[in-house]
């Protein structure tokens, strides 16, 4: 199937930074198809076994992920047996012709692998502010290594994504999560122009027949509103209406003090990345005090942790 499109928009972001939400909206472009975090199909665990068995998030909300018409057991078996036929296998399972694949795997090796197989990659990088990122992690109690360490990783990973695109010579666009949720039409038009695709209003994504891999657990709520009850911490309230609208997530204002935010902004990696991606110290933190203790804590913690472990995969 030589006519299969291999143009792919890879949506990159740190955890909980809006990549799933953005990817769901990019899937609304004409002839676009969201595969989600497709690299999960090929991921293995330490013992060499496949790490995941269920893939499709919308079908998963109905308890039938393994019967999904696109990512069901039979498709996964084919994809794993013939990874080189990834694009034709998927195209064969999708009714409409696909002109643009939207992939939110956030796995740089996966992008290089697909490029080697003839993919035409475009990088769409979305960042949440450092304090927004930390707020999401605090809400999920995922702050291993401490706040300073997490903030350092926020800067490091986002700079790594921008550098990756530059070093690989890939077309790259950056958007702020905060702009996307407050001015979605403007941001989507900008991305459409970057991708040379058409952005046309159509039915909201949760009313469309979509099949995509994984994504932020909150994305499933739009397809199955009763799942809002399972959201953790402050998200339970945020998603009580089904989480279907776009809203600015400002949990950090309830979870961080001004002093903490100011201290985190003083970390070198945070400073560098904030300047690069257009973030400044929020007004709530401007009058805050001493940053010494947190900086010290950060130094101790960064010496004990490796930054990122390489995922195991078989593609
Ligand atoms: Zn499905």
Quick summary:
With 315 residues, this protein is α/β, with parallel strands linked by helices.
Describe this structure in words.
- It is a single chain.
- By secondary structure, this protein is α/β, with parallel strands linked by helices.
- It has one domain (7-252): 3-Layer(aba) Sandwich (Rossmann fold).
- It has 16 helices and five strands.
- It has a five-stranded parallel sheet with strand order 2-3-1-4-5, with helices on both faces.
- α7 (147-168) crosses α16.
- It is globular, with a radius of gyration of 20 Å.
- The structure holds zinc ion (ZN).
- Residues 56, 58-59, 68, 70-71, 211 line the site of zinc ion.
- Zinc ion (ZN) is lined by residues 56, 58-59, 68, 70-71, 211.
Layout of SSEs?
Elements (H helix, E strand, L loop, with lengths): L6 E6 L6 H8 L5 E5 L20 H4 L12 H9 L4 H6 L8 E4 L4 H9 L3 E8 L2 H10 L7 H22 L3 E5 H6 L1 H12 L23 H5 L11 H4 L13 H4 L2 H8 L2 H10 L5 H4 L5 H11 L13
Parallel strand pairs: 1-3, 1-4, 2-3, 4-5
The chain binds zinc ion.
Tell me, rounded to a whole number, the average pLDDT: 86
Principal-axes geometry comes out as: globular
**Structural class based on helices, strands and sheet pairing:** alpha/beta
What name does the CATH topology carry?
A: Rossmann fold
């Amino acid at each position: 199937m030589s006519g299969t499109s291999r143009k792919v928009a890879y949506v990159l972001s740190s955890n909980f930074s809006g990549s799933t939400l953005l990817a769901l909206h990019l899937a609304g472009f004409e002839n676009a198809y969201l595969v989600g975090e497709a690299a999960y199909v090929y991921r293995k665990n330490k013992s060499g076994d496949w790490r995941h068995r269920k893939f499709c998030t919308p079908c998963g909300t109905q308890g039938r992920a393994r019967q999904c018409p696109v990512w069901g057991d039979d498709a996964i078996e084919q994809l794993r047996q013939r990874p080189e036929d990834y694009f034709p296998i998927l195209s064969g399972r999708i009714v409409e012709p696909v002109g643009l694949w939207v992939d939110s795997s956030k796995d740089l090796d996966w992008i290089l692998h697909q490029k080697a197989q003839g993919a035409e990659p475009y990088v769409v990088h979305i960042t949440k502010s450092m304090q927004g990122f930390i707020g999401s992690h605090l809400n999920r109690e995922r702050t291993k290594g401490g706040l300073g360490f997490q903030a350092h990783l926020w800067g490091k990973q986002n700079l790594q994504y921008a550098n990756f695109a530059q070093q690989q010579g890939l077309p790259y666009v950056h958007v702020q999560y905060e702009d996307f949720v407050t001015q979605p039409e403007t941001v989507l038009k900008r991305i459409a122009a970057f991708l040379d695709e058409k952005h046309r209003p159509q039915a909201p994504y949760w009313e469309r027949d979509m099949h995509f891999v994984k994504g932020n657990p909150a994305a499933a709520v739009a397809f199955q509103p009763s799942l809002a009850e399972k959201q953790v911490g402050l998200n339970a309230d945020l998603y009580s209406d089904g989480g279907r609208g776009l809203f600015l997530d400002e949990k950090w204002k309830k979870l961080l003090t001004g002093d903490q935010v100011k201290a985190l902004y003083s970390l070198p990696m945070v400073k560098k990345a904030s300047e690069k991606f257009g973030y400044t110290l929020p007004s709530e933190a401007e009058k805050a005090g001493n940053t010494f203790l947190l900086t010290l804590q950060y130094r101790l913690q960064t010496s004990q942790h490796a930054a990122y472990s390489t995922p195991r995969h078989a593609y």
